[in-house]
Amino acid sequence: MIETDDLGNSAVDRLISAEAKSTQEEAIERALRPRRLADYVGQAKIREQLTIFMTRFTASRRSSKKSCIRRWRTSRSIS
């Protein structure tokens, strides 16, 4: 039976930090993460969806840059 709700210093022990404990831990974490879509093993459906998304995003980004340049050139020629 619990008679008190005093947890002592256990709350301090439970703090979680996003910072790496050491440079070695950081290097291990980086080594575990995939760098390219081809590095994702056994997730063909997700890879396919990511490839489609990234291709469309890149294409839309390029077209928006081109339209910004066109608008900039047009505004300069009008002035």
TrEMBL record:
Alphabetic keyword roster: ATP-binding, Helicase, Hydrolase, Nucleotide-binding
An annotated Gene Ontology molecular function: helicase activity
Protein name: Holliday junction DNA helicase RuvB
